[in-house]
Description:
Elements: E1 8-13, E2 18-24, H1 33-48, E3 54-59, H2 71-78, H3 88-99, E4 105-109, E5 112-114, H4 116-123, E6 126-129, E7 134-136, H5 150-158, H6 160-169, E8 173-174, H7 175-181, E9 186-187, H8 193-205, H9 224-241, H10 247-261, H11 263-277, H12 281-295, E10 315-318, H13 322-333, E11 338-341, H14 345-365, H15 370-377, E12 380-383, E13 394-397, H16 403-416, E14 422-425, H17 432-435, E15 445-450, E16 459-464, H18 470-482, E17 486-491, H19 498-514, H20 519-529, H21 535-542, H22 544-557, H23 567-573, E18 586-588, E19 594-596, H24 600-611, H25 617-620, H26 624-644, H27 651-662, H28 671-678, H29 680-694, H30 702-710
Parallel strand pairs: 2-3, 3-4, 4-6, 5-7, 6-9, 10-11, 10-13, 11-12, 13-14, 14-15, 16-17
Antiparallel strand pairs: 1-2, 7-8, 15-16, 18-19
Bound molecules: ligand LQMBO4RU and nicotinamide-adenine-dinucleotide.
Family: In the central section; belongs to the 3-hydroxyacyl-CoA dehydrogenase family. In the N-terminal section; belongs to the enoyl-CoA hydratase/isomerase family.
Subcellular location: Peroxisome
Pathway: Lipid metabolism; fatty acid beta-oxidation
Amino acid sequence: MDSRTKGKTVMEVGGDGVAVITLINPPVNSLSFDVLYNLKSNYEEALSRNDVKAIVITGAKGKFSGGFDISGFGEIQKGTRKEPKVGYISIDIITDLLEAARKPSVAAIDGLALGGGLELSMACHARISTPGAQLGLPELQLGVIPGFGGTQRLPRLVGLTKALEMILTSKPVRAEEGHSLGLIDAVVPSAELLTTARRWALDIVERRKPWISSLLKTDKLPPLGEAREILKFARGQTRKQAPNMKHPLMCLDALETGIVSGPRVGLEKEAEVGSQVISLDTTKGLIHVFFSQRGTVKVPGVTDRGLMPRKIKKVAIIGGGLMGSGIATALILSSYPVILKEVNEKFLEAGIGRVKANLQSRVRKGSMSKEKFEKTMSLLKGSLDYESFRDVDMVIEAVIENISLKQQIFADLEKYCPQHCILASNTSTIDLNKIGERTKSQDRIVGAHFFSPAHVMPLLEIVRTNHTSAQVIVDLLDVGKKIKKTPVVVGNCTGFAVNRMFFPYTQAAMFLVERGADPYLIDSAVSKFGMPMGPFRLCDLVGFGVAIATATQFIENFPERTYKSMIIPLMQEDKRAGEATRKGFYLYDDKRKAKPDPELKKYIEKARSISGGNVDPKLVKLSEKEIIEMTFFPVVNEACRVFAEGIAVKAADLDIAAIMGMGFPPYRGGIMFWADSIGSKYIYSRLDEWSKTYGDFFKPCAFLAERGSKGAPLSAPVEQARSRL
Ligand SMILES: CCCCC[C@H](O)CC(=O)SCCNC(=O)CCNC(=O)[C@H](O)C(C)(C)COP(=O)(O)OP(=O)(O)OC[C@H]1O[C@@H](n2cnc3c(N)ncnc32)[C@H](O)[C@@H]1OP(=O)(O)O
Ligand SMILES: NC(=O)c1ccc[n+]([C@@H]2O[C@H](COP(=O)([O-])OP(=O)(O)OC[C@H]3O[C@@H](n4cnc5c(N)ncnc54)[C@H](O)[C@@H]3O)[C@@H](O)[C@H]2O)c1
């Protein structure tokens, strides 16, 4: 393959008169422009050759295709590639050349047929797949729409309601379901895939099998009035679930056009809308997130050294509380045998009970069978001592946040665990060097910082000290992948990356209410911005005990930039500790529904008198935009510090950490990407102005000042020399 081209297709014509065209673009046979243009040439040749009666399209190495090459969108967005004429691929090539050809095509699908991959197969006249095939149109989660005819062909093959479900949720279906839906014509073992597809193609030529153009099918479409009702409902749901995104509604426009005005007009609408969505900011953000998420496992100096992950056969967890039980659940769900150690029988039973409850909730929801529940639970063994730790490959400590207790545990671990065993701590704040102070095992000590609930939250912060070996990081990255977490490797400091970014966010919110802003308006503005909930609702959910413990760490470690609000401690004195006590910033009913509490004023006023601040008329009347700026620019500021200190190696890692650890809206691309979309100059000037009026909490850090003064992007790499990793 030419090193400048991205992928190709190859065509082989058999003695049976079937031309087999194979998509080749590892690792997922994505449809790059090179692949698509090669496919066009192969088709033109196959259609012109007298020895070709029919065509089979397949993908190399057990994967049909993962869809259009997503980096192509980036090239179009950056202007480094000219977008082809609107409709050139979907209409001129896929519809007019392939689907309308005089020779039939059959798709032979093994593995993935996603996005453009499935769309290409739907333009074929039949689809044969293997049992493991995954079929889906996940484009909306990338901010684009199915643009190779999927908005027109999928409803015609599987019906409007199912097509909407598949497109709006981005969830693929398996081969068997695809078969029962009418998306797949036959499911056969891998070894028979190509022979069946060839025979099927010839059967179409011989009229023994129907010659079906998906685009012209109408039997699965509901009557027009019903279709309009279904689409109206889908629009309503979409507006509710994705209020800040335009592309899902634009996708529905393309679907509706095809149903109302016919598939050809629908294809034209799809092409027009497909081209428009590429330049939406939300699309740029989502595509950035796609690649950034896959980039977190690429750690310079670690994953580029040819190290292979060692096999982790058995894991021990110390502490079966909230976190330990969640971590144990995540591990046994991925088939790791786990030993859970506790201090006494009662606590051990409670810990195992929590794991059981986590799994039982899956059984109740129907996502886990009873047999699978029993099998998974059988991987968990309890223990009250370290005897069974002699053959474990990794220990994750998750006891209460107490330095001397953790130090003692790590000293004990060194005595009982084998020498190769990874010694990980789930501490949220404590310096890992201190935790390992009483051991000689600094090279195998690492942070495995899970987020609560650990079996649900997708992020794993892997915290490395200056001593942690590259092998240990590689091993933990592999475990992270196996338990389906997105790992982000960060340096050792108070709060690591996520909690450091989280802290200024809640602090800014406390500052604003002390100066007269309405907490409920702040929560509402932040939710509208796209966070799962506002900072006050979040404090209630987490509980004031955790909020105060975290604040104490930050006040101790970063006193110069901490705003010391007394609102939470004052409420806690009155036995209001958040949702668990049904009273916090909100009042909660039996169904955990939150409503504003008029009494909150009293605590705010008292806190204001303690801090000595005054109500600021400007802050009383903040617009939603100003609320977002005053709560999130301090987060950007802290993210800049984390980046400048080398705690995160890439700005994109902070984007992923913010999205998966804080709930920052993915369609804004993450904290640094969002900041760059606003501009460092503006953010710097706002923070600088606020710091002069309101104090050092808002003071821009040196990194932000330097980049902001030049208007330079915040996400541009920091020189290696300054990186701590
Ligand atoms: C004018 C244009 C119109 C286009 C219209 C068309 O309708 C639009 C599309 O088709 S958009 C693409 C739709 N497809 C997807 O959204 C699939 C995205 N990929 C995935 O979901 C997954 O990667 C996977 C399920 C295909 C494989 O998952 P797995 O965990 O096995 O592996 P990774 O996710 O780590 O991916 C491995 C490497 O492959 C790269 N990659 C995957 N898909 C694509 C793609 N479609 N385009 C380009 N690259 C892709 C991925 O980035 C990984 O590469 P690294 O170098 O980062 O390791
Ligand atoms: N709670 C969170 O949201 C959260 C999030 C991330 C990280 N963390 C960190 O995880 C750790 C655990 O937090 P948690 O919320 O699960 O605490 P928890 O109080 O719910 O559980 C701690 C458990 O450790 C047990 N334990 C204490 N000493 C032990 C010993 N010597 N051997 C075995 N078990 C022992 C206790 O009996 C208790 O069951 C802390 O370091 C915390 O900072 C907590």
